[in-house]
Design brief:
With about 300 residues, this protein is an alpha/beta fold. It folds into two domains: about 30-115, Leucine Dehydrogenase, chain A, domain 1 (Rossmann fold), CATH 3.40.50.10860; about 140-265, NAD(P)-binding Rossmann-like Domain (Rossmann fold, 3-Layer(aba) Sandwich). The protein is about 40% helix and about 15% strand. The protein contains ten helices and eleven strands. It has helices at about 10-30, 45-60, 75-90, 105-115, 125-135, 140-150, 170-180, 195-200, 245-250, 265-280; strands at about 5, 35-40, 65-70, 95, 160-165, 185-190, 205-210, 225-230, 235, 240, 255. The strands form three sheets. Strands 1-11-8-7-5-6 form a six-stranded parallel beta sheet. A three-stranded parallel beta sheet has the order 3-2-4, with helices on both faces. Helix 2 crosses helix 10 (about 265-280) and helix 6 (about 140-150) packs across helix 7. The model has no long low-confidence stretch (mean pLDDT about 95). The structure holds nicotinamide-adenine-dinucleotide (NAD). Nicotinamide-adenine-dinucleotide binds near residues 170, 215 and 231.
């Protein structure tokens, strides 16, 4: 079997075109332009790239963006005051604090300060809790991107065995909860899981988010499985690779996402979606067609 390769860039492009139209409709029907505020503390090089990508994606979609940069030694109180200002600003529909934060700032206190109605990263405990009950307003962007990719490729989720390798709060755990909400049977593995292969071989859908190059080799994958590789690893020669032996596993899977060009482009796309959704909620539009739908 040779897997079909998911073109995450093309899916992201298609969704962003749809989102541009949604923004235009919000502006023309309600006079509301969605707005995203991104707060960056310090000068972490990777964070600067991520933030730039988010701002550029907003511009391309018609979303107003505001980038707030604070010095690495800014006191926590200054960051909290900035969040309070953005929470109160009616033109801002999404507030995102780029992680990681400098060590003198308590991440949880910062994330909990963001209004749950503007928590477009989905990291506030209210939205994290909503993942348990299937009523989160803003699903976290990377797991949401995985779900959208599966939906776009018309992969049946209900009743299938899903194995998630990786149990972090931002990828592994929420991905597992979201797919369980779609009636999959889910196992979560992590670095202390004994004999990883005995779990991965059960997977109809295998989602890998461990940050370990070549962790998943063909012997660990069922013939015909769907394999989603979330990992992003930089090899010593500078190349970017995922967690899956792509060539080997592609010869056995039915569908596989590459790195780069798979889940990556979807993450920012779902941030755009969450920001537009926040603005729509503000004007009373509640779209429940995607299974999300807690009234504003
Ligand atoms: P993390 O380090 O917070 O968590 C990694 C998880 O993988 C942990 O639960 C750990 O126990 C598990 N793990 C580590 N080694 C393992 C092993 N040998 N076997 C089984 N499990 C193992 O990382 P994260 O933030 O969840 O990110 C995971 C990967 O996804 C990273 O490569 C990261 O760069 C990538 N990522 C990609 C996107 C995207 O947009 N595509 C977004 C976020 C993270």
């Amino acid at each position: 079997m040779t897997a079909r390769i998911i073109d995450g860039k093309a899916v992201a492009r298609k969704l962003r075109a749809e989102y541009r139209v949604r923004v235009q409709q919000l502006v023309s029907a309600h006079g509301v332009q969605p707005g995203l505020a991104v707060v960056l503390v310090g000068d972490n090089a990777a964070s600067q790239v991520y933030v730039r990508n988010k701002v550029r994606a907003c511009e391309e979609t018609g979303i107003r963006s505001e980038l707030i940069t604070l010095p690495a030694d800014a006191p926590e109180s200054r960051l909290l005051a900035e969040i309070d200002r953005l929470n109160a600003d009616p033109g801002t529909h999404g507030v995102l604090v780029q992680l990681p934060l400098p060590p003198h700032i308590a991440m949880r206190r910062v994330l909990e300060r963001i209004s749950v109605d503007k928590d477009v990263d989905g990291f506030h405990l209210y939205n994290v809790g909503g993942l348990m009950t299937g009523t989160t307003v803003f699903p976290p962007c990377t797991p949401f991107g995985v779900q959208k990719l599966l939906e776009h490729e018309k992969v049946q989720i209900a009743g299938r065995n899903v194995v998630v390798v990786g149990a972090s709060n931002i990828v592994g755990k929420p991905t597992a909860m979201m797919l369980m909400q779609r009636d999959a049977t889910v196992a979560i593995c992590h670095k202390l899981t004994r004999d990883l292969a005995q779990f991965t071989l059960l997977a109809d859908i295998l989602v890998v988010a461990a940050g370990v190059p070549n962790l998943i080799v063909p012997q660990m994958v069922r013939t015909g499985a769907v394999v989603i590789d979330v990992g992003i690893n930089r090899l010593p020669d500078g190349r970017i690779t995922g967690d899956v032996d792509f060539a080997g596993v592609a010869a056995k899977a039915s569908l596989i996402s590459p790195v780069p060009g798979g889940v990556g482009p979807m993450t920012v796309t779902m941030l755009l979606f969450n920001t537009i959704r926040s603005a729509e909620r503000r004007v009373g539009i509640v779209d429940v067609s995607d299974g999300l739908g807690v009234p504003a």
